[in-house]
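Slack export, channel: ligand-projects

TW: morning all. Re-posting the request from yesterday since it got buried. We need the structure predicted with the small molecule present, not the apo form. The ligand is zinc ion; the SMILES is in the block with the sequence. No rush, but it would help planning for next week.
GE: picking it up
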Amino acid sequence: MPTTYTPREMLAKLVSFDTVSSKSNLALVDFVQDYLEGHGAVCHRIYDETGEKAGLMAHVGPMEAGGVVLSGHTDVVPVEGQDWTSDPFEVVEKDGRLYGRGTCDMKGFDALALCAVPLAIARGIRRPLQIALSYDEELGLAGAPPLVRAMRDRLPHAESVIVGEPTRMGVVTTHKGGTGFRTEIHGYEVHSSKCHEGVSAVMTAAELIVWLNARMQENRARHEAAPTPQSEGFDPGWTTLHVGRIRGGTANNITAKDCWFSTDIRVMPGESPDAWAARYQAECARLEAELKKIRPEARINPILLTKNPPFVREEGGAAEALARRLTGDNALRAVSFGTEAGIFQSGGYSSVVCGPGDIEQAHKPDEFIEISQFEAGWTFMEKLVDGLCE
Ligand SMILES: [Zn+2]
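GE: finished. pasting the full token output, ligand included:
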């Protein structure tokens, strides 16, 4: 007999695996794969290059195109340095809430998706239900592209993808994409009284940061003059270019030999992260050529860390129509956080973001999901399963 769990039991089980992004998720994947195969699902794993982490895809129902993908991630953000009042890897119920790391982001949805499988089989599934569980979502969505590619290669194409990030079960049809850099600058040290003979890595960083900020102000001005239709629901409705960290230099009176800073560019739907990355790299190259005239050793090295596509509102999208039918939510919603929806969409899948819980509670100490949200998520799954069994 295959093992079955109530959604609450499944959540407790998933939370008990410490799958902080820096660690292996294989113990969780073993458990989930055993469970799904016990219910007759066809499963495939996609390992990362270390072999310590894997994405998991599963298929139940007829081996044909159509049906739904339920998409979640297995990793969670760290708990170190956070003040938790209970064990983060144990689900604790209190005041109508379920506390634990990942209850909201997003093992709550994962648990509901996994419990939907035996339900669909028991009710007589007639259209495919697929599960996609990624790793490294919290590390710049790194695990989703190989998972989506493998799903396209190895499973029949699903009609709709539901990415269950916490939206309080609201139907989110668009979000920004993004790209991130760590820019390393190597200058040339001289006494600061002879600045013109050296290259200050710190002052070069400042030039690049001013350039980034100028582009952001241009974007803002363009938006305020003439907002695009894609910007509806976004706050702010323009591409932002932000520098969050910087380090460099050794003394007040030495032109800095080294400096690095990190850049986070959040790209509006309708614009391209590739184009923004290329534009920034071109500016780095232009400035580097200037510096080399002073000292040939000078270098600017913009290291690309992440690049993820925006999630664009679909005209008459199947996933949106499905999620609206199941939730009754007809509002136009955009969110400011990135999800795997943009990656599924780029892979040719109609996608939507809709899941239980509030992003407010994600990533914090004492993360929780309201029981009412968890139950609303289960009602959604029951309706979705009914649709697949019609
Ligand atoms: Zn998440």
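GE: first-pass observations. The first helix runs from residue 7 to 16. The chain is about 35% helix and 25% strand.
TW: perfect, thank you
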